From TrEMBL:
Residues 462-484 are annotated as: Disordered. Residues 29-347 form the Sulfatase N-terminal domain. This is Sulfatase. PANTHER family: ARYLSULFATASE FAMILY MEMBER, ENDO-4-O-SULFATASE. It comes from Mucilaginibacter boryungensis. Belongs to the sulfatase family. Residues 462-473 have a biased composition (Basic and acidic residues). Keywords: Calcium, Hydrolase, Metal-binding, Signal. It holds the Pfam family Sulfatase_C. InterPro entries: Alkaline_phosphatase_core_sf, Sulfatase, Sulfatase_CS, Sulfatase_N. Residues 1-21 form the signal peptide.
Length: 484
């Protein structure tokens, strides 16, 4: 009997100790960022999708806040991810375009990142999934503040396989790529060689995320889960094949929804839900040239690879029960650069020493203020071309060349054309015209003049290739040694 009592008391002590450990650090919550790849603004039910059930996205939106004007710094993989992790416009860091295995630039290890800053506050940091900011040491995640990394160095279409899953034909665009490596830390531990391998990605990264949370439940932790899907080539496990009403793309979204559910259930299992800031977003809009293998911009104009809102405006849901309004909807202009200073505020962690472009919206997020923290956003693309500027609900589009998806889209995984077009100066009122259809510059010359003052500020600070401005405040990227 004494042994039974002692055992019960020990179990009670262990449980209470775990709860105490979490309560003790409640001022510094765990932070999880789930960053989807090419998930469009309209790809889940909270943002208008039909035909694809997303109960876990729905649950996150019901228990958290849904943002409707959340933009990424640029509508392409590498620059967007750099902006999220550093709080900077990527062109400030010297980064542009999707980095290739042989690229001569990478994120500079001297840049401070969300994980490197959180480590200074005692956080355990881990990354899973797609990196795409440098493809070999010393430009992999463990050199930027992550204690651990398991994943792929860049997009999973950068491999010598054609869109139908067959080996790339000699001379085809895919044939120039090396096999797609899988890294554990700095070490290659395998390769993705087939679509069957790709079908395991979502499940593998999800199970490893669950393991990370379990292993670090008694410590403050930061987990960055960068899911490679729904970027093409699409692939899903047998469990989800044929489950949606809209084909393979819908099946992939359903598996990502399941993955989100696994993360939230794990937090509940270990009593971490109320002490975890959960952020769910995407790196850019849908790659529309892939047609039925691409998602939806939710009625916004164009998609990935453009300076239109279909490329930069993405879903964002933030949940922190008891702190962030459940079921809240936030229509303020925000960007993925703003996550870093907001997280630093909430976790009482240091800010970067160098200049950043992100703005702290913690008070707005926590219901302490309703003041706009961001009124201006620069739409850069290509190497360093300023293509538009937003001011509050107004967007002034500057003359530039852009690809367009207003042509026949691809089907069954094959891409359609994306021709270039010349874009003229135009002013759009996004409050009345979210599709950027009606040019109202003649009606509002005062707004055009106001925004042009921000255009000049951007060109002075960051430069603009379209007007041959270098910019005064750009930093150097990392410089890998190419072995091409």
């Amino acid at each position: 009997m004494k042994l039974k009592i002692a055992w019960c008391l020990w179990c009670l002590f262990a449980v209470n100790s775990g709860i105490f450990a979490q309560n003790k650090i409640s001022g510094r919550p765990n932070v999880i960022i789930i960053n989807m790849d090419d998930m469009g603004y309209g790809d889940t039910e909270p943002y208008g999708m039909t035909g694809i059930p997303t109960p876990n996205f729905n649950k996150a939106a019901k228990e958290g806040m849904r943002f409707t004007h959340f933009n990424v710094a640029q509508a392409v993989c590498s620059p967007s991810r750099a902006a999220l992790l550093t709080g900077c416009y990527p062109n400030r860091l010297g980064l542009h375009n999707a980095l290739m295995p042989w690229s001569e630039i990478a994120l500079n290890p001297a840049e401070e990142t969300i994980p490197s800053l959180l480590k200074q506050s005692g956080y355990v940091t881990g990354m899973l999934g797609k990196w795409h900011l440098g493809s070999r040491p010393p430009f992999l995640p463990v050199h930027f503040g992550f204690d651990s990394f398991y994943g792929i160095p860049y997009s999973h279409d950068i491999w010598p396989v054609d869109y139908d899953g067959s080996p790339a034909k000699p001379g085809s665009p895919q044939s120039k790529y090396p096999p797609l490596p899988i890294y554990d830390g700095d070490k290659i531990v395998g390769y993705n060689l087939t679509l069957d391998d790709q079908a395991k990605l979502t499940g593998t990264f999800t199970s490893k995320a669950v393991e990370f949370i379990k292993a670090n439940q008694a410590k403050p932790f930061f987990l960055y889960l960068a899911q490679p899907m729904p970027h093409v080539p699409l692939a899903t496990s047998a469990r989800f094949k044929g489950k949606s009403e809209v084909g393979l793309f819908g099946d992939v979204i359903m598996e990502l929804d399941w993955s989100l559910g696994e993360i939230m259930r794990t937090l509940e299992k270990y009593r971490l839900t109320n002490n975890t800031l959960l952020i769910i977003t995407s790196d850019n809009g849908p790659w529309l040239r892939f047609g039925d293998n691409a998602g939806s911009s939710g009625g916004l104009r164009e998609g990935k690879g453009t300076a239109w809102d279909g490329g930069t405006r993405v879903p964002c849901i933030i949940r922190w029960p008891g702190r962030v309004e459940a079921g809240g909807v936030n229509s303020h202009l925000l960007t993925n650069m703003d996550l870093l200073p907001t997280i630093m505020h909430i976790t009482k962690s240091p800010m970067p020493k160098n200049k950043i472009d992100g703005l702290d919206f913690a008070d707005m997020l926590l219901g302490k203020s309703d003041i706009d923290v961001r009124k201006v956003f620069y739409y850069y693309y290509d190497v360093n071309s300023l293509k538009a500027v937003r001011y509050k609900n107004w967007k002034l589009v500057l003359p530039h060349t852009s690809q367009t998806y207003a042509a026949l889209h691809g089907k069954d995984g094959a891409p359609g054309p994306a021709p270039s077009v010349n874009v003229k100066t135009a002013l759009y009122d996004l409050a009345h015209d979210p599709g950027e259809t009606y040019d109202v510059q003649i009606l509002h010359p005062d707004i055009v003049q106001k925004i042009m003052s921000f255009v000049q500020e951007a060109r002075t600070d960051l430069g603009d290739d379209l007007t041959h401005n270098e910019g005064k405040n750009r930093r150097q990227p990392g410089k890998p040694i190419s072995d091409k």
